[in-house]
Amino acid sequence: MLNFSFSNKTRIHFGTQQIAQVSNEIPLDAKVLITYGGGSIKSNGVYDQVISALSEHTVFEFSGIEPNPSYETSMKAVALIKQENIDYILAVGGGSVIDASKFIAAAALFDGEPWDILAKKATVEAAIPLGAVLTLPATGSESNGGAVVSKLATQDKLAFMSAHVLPQFAVLDPSVMNSLPPRQLSNGIVDAFIHTIEQYLTYDVNGKLQDRFAEGILLTLIEEGPKLFTDQKTDDVNGNVMWSATQALNGLIGSGVPQDWATHMIGHEITATYKLDHAQTLAIVLPRMMWEMRETKEGKLLQYASRVWGINEGDTETRIKAAIEKTEQFFHSVQMKTRFSDYQLGEEVVDVIVGHLERHGMTHLGEKQLVTLEHSRNILAASL
Ligand code: NZQ
Ligand code: ZN
To answer: Where in this chain does the record put each Fe-containing alcohol dehydrogenase-like C-terminal domain (predicted)?
Structure first.
């Protein structure tokens, strides 16, 4: 196992009616900015619960944070924070609202041009404290220090990490998932699945517990994910998916093991250019990434085939092929498509995305930096 230091200070309040906990989590004398997206929280009752929990607090609102949140929108919230001396942010939404809120929290206290936090990896020295009410289980953003923000003007979609933007608390109420449209349920299951894969399907360092945690998350998503599209959907099923998504990217399963993230880096470029949802891009790239990098990932691919899919027969290549097929079938079973052509995109994407990867210095990706532009080109071309 590799050396690691691990801490995750986000306090989780899991279960129905837990939004009320917001009231105790945020200091009564705080000036609170509630940040949210396009308004789903107003029609599903989440907004009312938040407002009721904050009835004794001084509250401001900032709405209109878009999916794949933009720098441009975020900076409007920064201006409001400065104008009103706001000192606490409550993000109510999915990964986009939480990510934007993290950037806003850091940008409001940043000395200089905040885009440098993303573009130049400028260090975040401080951030306004924030909490999260999660409405879409997918990204793990509710209890990690990462955020992804796009600059519309230049079509850049970039990530930053800072312990300062780790949410102080997060409310995970599985019943909020009942208003999610099927497309967002698909996105959530697939994003959580691929977060797990990116920290598991690398090379063996004898991190036995991390491997088994990861396999547990994958197996839970495989068992529970498809139920979300049937009448077997209950709060327990919602809860199992929600907790899996949080655990997939709260730092635990990735501690002490190599991490890949090549699929994500290529996926971000696809979203920035063609506006596909984040998880849609991952489901296109991952199966071909597994095949293209099968030699360097061979040991873990065979372990994945055996422990997750029960594939133990046949030679190495046969077992790897079967595991990739099972993975793709699983994506289809949760109503996720896996080809560019499913989104009316053709071979033009290959040169464009390779060009963006090059421009962003993404020329050696993956756990061993072996995913060169040539590999990325092969992966994209095979995914049409
Ligand atoms: O805007 P609203 O009205 O809230 O509607 C949203 C949005 O249209 C809707 N929605 C959310 N909860 C709902 C709901 N609709 C009905 N009922 C509910 N309970 O769903 C739509 C998509 O929301 P979004 O937040 O964009 O989805 P997701 O959580 O998948 O977040 C995606 C973003 O997170 C980034 C992605 O790149 C993308 O920008 N990621 C963040 C990561 C992190 N911070 O660690 C890691 C990920 O790999 C990912 O890159
Ligand atoms: Zn993701």
So the answer is: 189-356
pLDDT single digits (tens) 132-162: 999 999 999 999 999 999 999 998 999 999 9
The CB density around residue 329, as the number of other CB atoms within 10 Å, is 11
ipTM: 0.99
Confirm or reject: Cβ of 96 under 6 Å from ligand 1: yes
Q: What is the Cα–Cα distance from 381 to 384, expressed in whole angstroms?
A: 6
What per-residue string of b and e applies to 27-42 under the rule 16 or more CB within 10 Å gives b? Answer: eeebebbbbbbeebbe
Is 245 found in the same domain as 144?
A: no
Query: Same domain for 304 and 214?
Result: yes
- In the reported structure, the alpha carbon of residue 199 is separated from the centroid of ligand 2 by a whole-number distance in angstroms of 12
The DSSP annotation for 101-165 comes to HHHHHHHTT-SS-THHHHHS-PPP-----EEEEESS-SS-GGGSSEEEEEETTTTEEEEEE-GGG
User: Structural domain tally of the chain?
Assistant: 2
Answer whether 180 contacts ligand 1 (Cβ < 6 A).
yes
Task: Pull the structure tokens for residue 19.
Answer: 């939004």
